[in-house]
Please model this.
Amino acid sequence: MTTALDFRQALRGAVLRATRPRMAVLSAVHAHPRAGTDSLVGEAPCLAASGDRGFSIDEAEVICWGLCTGCSPHAVADRP
Model:
């Protein structure tokens, strides 16, 4: 069983402070390790950088942020 002490040690081992938000995230991820979303669907958006500033860009990431329907009572009602 993973404890708060294990989380603190893991954070400090990565040279990070064991703050309350970090501890909460580790606890939630540990409690629900398989909580995920389906793949995105539809046409890929244009992911070309507006200015590469001299870098050779080889990939881009898309991050979806949101709340599950249990956490947001308006999530279901607001959908089109």
About this structure: Residues 20-31 form the longest helix (12 residues). Residues 1-34 form one domain. The CA atoms of residues 21 and 27 lie 10 Å apart. The chain has a mean pLDDT of 78.
